[in-house]
């Protein structure tokens, strides 16, 4: 039986960086220049062409490994289930965009076809996403308001309000696709990393609140004009409450019944998901029932219920985007492109990790870009993915995007063949379905207490993003949240938690002296840890923290010493002073005429060695390098030895190239590890040991006993 390793002993020389380099030969590596990278990027051979083709059309890769017997049945069941949900959500989310319901169906068809060929995720369901639909709706209602004049745009003259809004939405979707495609081709998929989980959580929770309030007009059966811009949510609530007495009771009761039933069955699906072969499609069931009841009792004519109405039995002809709309919506389209991609990429990552395959962020941008360009040409709503719909596709057995293409076929059949059956569907039912599906996003509010306890800066980012998105609108709210997040990053690096370290007795481990009891601190030695990159914005902070750690200002000490020396030289020159050195810091002198003793002193320096732990320093910029050099020289000039430990070799190379070293600061101050430096320091101390062997600082530091 193998004995576990619970301790180790290492015998090696004590290393400075110089001695380590001398004793251990490094591999000679030729670093590529910018020109080399450019040449490599534009070099073309058959292998690279093949890899590029496979990366641009990922379907070729996963189709070759498709297991027909194992996966096909699951993809079929998943495709049918997802298609039914996509139909309902497409109808519902088109209301968020202030568009006729059938444009949401287009979003569940056209983009899915393109993503089938170009996408790298095998499990996400492409189509309308509520947050993106709401952002599109804000632009649509701003440019084509319900009652006010339309923005003066060439090409929209003579069209109905619905057609104008459809044209604005299509052009905006096309522009979103252009932005996404451009970012994908430029290989900037990394931009999504700047949207942290905290920011996305606060943003999507605020979006859920916006969506909830936007659906109240359908729940209560009221006519509420569209509002956009800052405080739009306040104006919508004001309009709703001023009309609350005009509530259509049939809409309200229908919506409440649908919400209660759908919510209850969804809870059953969640609780018994391991026992149910497929989730109960309760939204579809309630939609069918609601259509039947509405048709039987003629809700539209007899009770004034607003219904979906006419659904065309064919697709509209493709149209070219309106350039005037591009000019008016460019500022809005870019954040929508980022949000749509960020949400879809986050969902795709979840399933990629779960099912052990790789997704490519840049290829995802290309896939969604082309999908939205293609969809925009057919007046589709902007597409991304919805977590609930993707969960249906994955949980019902979907293994690949064959499930996605089958869901698009279901949407095609409904649109072309049986769409008329959905015409009597009350919009209050769609609103109810939307609200119930907001549960997951609204429940993210539970993260706030947890974040407050664990990381208050993250909590502040969440709250600021949430409030800004609520009151300023989703576009400005996202910008504010991103700004606060970047400020938080700056704050964390500009004001990190510096610490003074001490040796954990009997080990070569060093930790914050405040956290441990059994520690050893050699007299006259101070170890200061710098836990962040050093750059222009935090060099002064580090210098201040370093002075706090050592307990004195070396520049002040130096000035005091120089002042004392000038005074002594002046008295000696006049013949009024005889000098006797009592200690390095105190000089006793007597006046020749009256023999009165006068003491000239300077503030004491109680350390002889200062160790800087650079193990967490990832880079130093030029501005900080100058400040660091000045700080080190201030200590060296008052006879404090400086040591820098665990520094990245590339930083040392940068220091050499920037002429950091001179006759005062030498490369010999750099040590490979903190323990190497401490052993070197203690070896330099001249102490006469008269007591027990444990008085020897090296013995204490290494845990050894002196031999008799």
Biggest sheet descriptor: 7 strands, mixed
Strand content: 5-15%
Low-confidence stretches: 583-599, 687-694, 703-708
Oligomerization status of the protein chains: single chain
Structural class: alpha/beta
> Globular, elongated, flat, extended or rod-shaped: what is the shape?
elongated
How many helices does DSSP assign?
A: 29
Number of strands: 12
Gyration radius over CA:
36 Å
Helix fraction, binned, reads 55-70%
Please tell me the overall pLDDT: 85
Distance between the termini: 40 Å
How would you summarize this macromolecular structure in one to three sentences?
This protein has 29 helices and twelve strands.
Highlighted features:
disordered C terminus; three-stranded antiparallel sheet; 708 residues; 29 helices; alpha/beta; single chain; seven-stranded mixed sheet
Account of the protein in words:
The protein is an alpha/beta fold and 708 residues long. The model is unreliable at 583-599, 687-694 and 703-708 (pLDDT under 50). It is built from 29 helices and twelve strands. β10, α26 and β11 (641-645) form a beta-alpha-beta unit.
How are the SSEs ordered, and which strands pair?
Elements: H1 17-23, H2 34-42, H3 46-56, H4 59-64, H5 68-96, H6 102-107, H7 110-118, E1 126-127, H8 130-143, H9 161-185, H10 197-220, H11 232-242, H12 249-271, H13 282-297, H14 299-303, H15 323-355, H16 361-377, E2 384-385, H17 387-395, H18 402-418, H19 427-436, H20 439-442, H21 447-454, H22 456-472, H23 474-494, E3 499-504, E4 510-512, E5 519-520, E6 525-529, H24 539-550, H25 554-573, E7 578-581, E8 586-590, E9 597-601, E10 609-613, H26 622-636, E11 641-645, H27 649-657, E12 670-671, H28 674-684, H29 697-702
Parallel strand pairs: 6-10, 10-11, 11-12
Antiparallel strand pairs: 1-2, 3-4, 3-5, 3-6, 7-8, 8-9
Helix pairs in contact: 5-8, 5-17, 5-18, 5-19, 7-16, 7-18, 8-9, 8-15, 9-15, 9-16, 10-11, 10-19, 10-22, 10-23, 12-13, 12-19, 21-22, 22-23
